[in-house]
What we know:
The complex is a heterodimer of chains A (about 180) and B (about 130).
Chain A: H1 2-26, E1 46-47, E2 57-58, E3 68-73, H2 78-92, E4 97-102, H3 106-116, E5 122-126, H4 130-134, E6 142-146, E7 152-157, H5 165-175
Parallel strand pairs in A: 3-4, 4-5
Antiparallel strand pairs in A: 1-2, 3-6, 6-7
Chain B: H1 2-9, H2 32-42, H3 61-75, H4 80-91, H5 106-130
Protein name (chain A): DsbE family thiol:disulfide interchange protein
Family (chain A): Belongs to the thioredoxin family. DsbE subfamily.
Keywords (chain A): Cytochrome c-type biogenesis, Disulfide bond, Redox-active center
Amino acid sequence: MTRKLLLALPLLVFVLFVGAALWRLADPPSSTVASKLVGKPVPPFALKPALPTKPGFGAADLAGGQPRLVNLFASWCVPCIAEAPVLAELKARGVAIDGIAIRDTAPDITRFLSEQGDGYARIGADPNGQAQIALGASGVPESFIVDGRGIIRYHHIGAVMPQDVPEVMAEWEKVR
Amino acid sequence: MVLACALLTAGPLAADSNQPPSPYAYKQLEDPRQEARAKALMGELRCLVCQGQSIADSDAELAGDMRSLVRERIKAGESPDQIRAWLIERYGSWVSYAPVFGPETLFLYAAPLLLLLVGGLLAARRLKRSR
Lengths: 176, 131
């Protein structure tokens, strides 16, 4: 009996393996990489103003007592166009938004904001993506909610769409 | 023919900026010893956009920025392990192709030894019986 069981063992292992493979192929895990910095202080960075009309900002400015939503965007980023009206709505609901312009130029940003709307209080320029990497982000757009003490509380990957507004607002209320 | 021409001239979907790459994205370090260390590390770091490629292989802008970051930090005297740890702090151990030894990877490292042990036992039993 035990010998039969032993002989069946390789088959059993194989069936388990096929089962696991089928399960993961049918329901692949998410391939987005969430920043591991949620719950940790904003890493040190300082960004020059991306536009002559708005100040830039750095990590120190994010620990000013009030929470901020930090939005990584770019004029060359297509989903950012879809996100712009949602950011305007968040701003109307009292969310303070700072932008980080990834690999962008002042004329392009100006054109983008005049066409899509401008909800940013400050915009820092990140010409080489170094702040993007420091924050643990891998694309545009991505958004972080930073509390008044400069601790990252929430990370949203991809465009904030209308259906994401309740979640983002709930996270925002939590840190106010 | 028309289709071929269209395919040749079609631009990729606008997923990249039109900005020049980071300073050391496509430029080697002046010191060959430093470049060798940077190169070795870049081969072991995962590109986060084109997952499955290393940043040394990838042409994505983020990969270029990461190569520049690696080279600039090596140039500034940081060790490859320090840079790897800094990136793992941000993106998790997933960013590195060299898995660190820990509770999550215990089975990975122990499996060859376990299999060798089981195989050895089976072989020993078989040899004993045949004698």
